Amino acid sequence: MGAIRQFIGDVHWGNLDYLIIDLPPGTGDEPLSIFQLIPDCDGVVIVTTPQDVALLDSRKAVTFARTLNVPVIGIIENMSGFICPYCGESTPLFKVGGGENAAREMGVPFLGKIPIDPEIVESGDDGKPFVSYNSESANVFREIARKVEHFVNGSEGRSVMREKEVVI
Ligand SMILES: [Zn+2]
Fold first, then answer.
1. For the segment 126-136, what is each residue's pLDDT rounded down to a tens digit?
2. CA 88 to centroid of ligand 1, rounded, Å
């Protein structure tokens, strides 16, 4: 808690458009600390995997956010099929659809399916933003970003005009 408080409060973030915090899996102390320190955050995006068992974790995450009054922007299904670099065909290594089912069951938006795409790893290693690529996976990323942006800046978000700097 102390380290997170220091990181959020003492870093000179400057004038940010967005502050995105990548949290470890689960509903432990870290997300709780973040939501206590930034009570007016715009919302959470839950990233899950396609297996049926992921439904349980997604359900827990949505319930956790709702208990803390944090808006749920939506669910993303990660590792949603493997895109073959040779023929472009998608193979459902871990099944497909768990994220979408979780979103439907919990009544939250489904933001999209991100496939396992070797290009994502290569672009990261090359230091090139993957979203600038012209591929199916990059399209999925852009579409998800558009939905999140719409949620945060649109009527569903908490506030369109507000202080950008978080003071703790
Ligand atoms: Zn192939």
1. 998 888 888 88
2. 6
